[in-house]
Design goal:
Layout: E1 41-43, H1 54-67, E2 71-73, E3 77-78, E4 81-82, E5 85-86, H2 87-96, E6 103-105, H3 122-133, E7 138-141, H4 151-170, E8 174-178, H5 197-204, E9 210-215, H6 216-221, H7 226-232, E10 239-242, E11 244-245, E12 252-253, H8 262-266, H9 269-272, E13 276-279, H10 289-300
Parallel strand pairs: 1-2, 1-13, 6-7, 7-8, 8-9, 9-10, 10-13
Antiparallel strand pairs: 3-4, 4-5, 11-12
Helix pairs in contact: 1-2, 1-10
């Protein structure tokens, strides 16, 4: 399903096999299952404009904790620091704010450039060391420049992710890829039968220590149905980014104020293998990052399926 997802709620059906009364087994009392719960988290990128100094970072982390968030997904690791803070100092700021950080985004600088080739594996140990310092379990590669969005670029990415996953496994950690919308273009645009790049990544990384962080917003923005992808690749998406868009699909707004049918998407959480979700808003006014997170969690707190 493509664009129809954007203009209405998902239609999901469950089929049950019929049995005559004589064929039905006797009902036995089963122990009640405890529903999985999720502490609300957010992606630190949402409030990037506020993170101007070590003092501002520490204060902002505490402010988000006060809003009701219990975990934060990091970004901004570069040249051995988080947002210019030594790893030990950044970790202390996270601890002082009483936030957990199960996962983080780490970007090899080559993926930001225009030269496509093998990705330097020297970054792997640095990423894993930083993630381990924050007690993170998932190390996520989140983006690539337009120059890399072709068959050669994706092939190099797969090789790097496999090596990252193998190294992460030795430490009891897991590697992941975070999607945007560009992965839903054909891997070979000139070939009508070409799989989407996302299909290629899911196929090539099956059975490895690499999972996927589904950015639900970007899947829907690409005209795709997130639930269909989850159903087609069960258990492959233990992490989600949760953000919303207005009816024009171009404007990001706080979660719950837009048109994405969150209840139907969260109904697929078990199939997805969901462990953590992070509220995020890529674009909001520079001085409203905290307010955007506030509006999102106020709505999310009212939705039983998001707890």
């Amino acid at each position: 399903m493509k664009n129809s997802f954007l203009f209405g709620a998902l239609s999901l059906s469950v089929l049950f096999a019929c049995q005559t009364p004589a064929e039905q087994p006797m009902e036995q009392e089963q122990p009640a299952e405890t529903a999985k719960t999720y502490d609300k988290g957010y992606q630190l990128y949402t409030i990037r404009e506020a993170l101007t100094s070590p003092e501002a970072i520490a204060a902002s982390l505490k402010e988000t904790k006060a809003l009701g968030y219990n975990k934060m997904e990091s970004f901004g690791f570069m040249q051995g620091t988080f947002l210019g803070m030594p790893v030990t100092d950044f970790k202390q700021a996270v601890v002082d704010a009483e936030l957990g950080s199960p996962s983080g985004h780490y970007l090899p600088m080559q993926l930001e450039g225009d030269v496509v080739g093998p990705i330097d594996t020297a970054t792997i140990a640095d990423f894993l060391d930083a993630a381990q310092a924050l007690n993170q379990h998932w190390v996520i590669i989140p983006w690539m420049s337009e120059a890399w969005r072709n068959a050669e670029g994706y092939s190099h990415l797969v090789n790097y992710l496999k090596l990252l996953g193998a190294a992460a496994k030795e430490r009891g950690m897991v590697a992941a890829w975070h999607n945007h919308d560009f992965e839903f273009q054909p891997l070979h645009p000139e070939d009508p039968a070409s799989p989407k790049a996302y299909e290629y990544l899911l196929s090539e990384l099956e059975g490895t220590n690499v999972v996927f962080q589904m950015d639900v917003h970007w899947v829907a923005f690409a005209g795709e149905n997130p639930v269909e992808w989850i159903n087609n690749y069960p258990g492959r998406f233990p992490l989600w980014h949760v953000k919303d868009f207005a009816a024009d699909t171009a404007t990001q707004i706080p979660v719950g104020q837009g048109v994405i049918p969150w209840e139907e998407i969260f109904a697929a959480a078990e199939t997805s293998g969901l462990e953590h979700y992070y509220i995020e808003q890529d674009f909001c006014a520079a001085d409203r990052g905290i307010e955007c997170l506030k509006e999102s969690i106020e709505w999310a707190d009212q939705q039983a399926y998001m707890d």
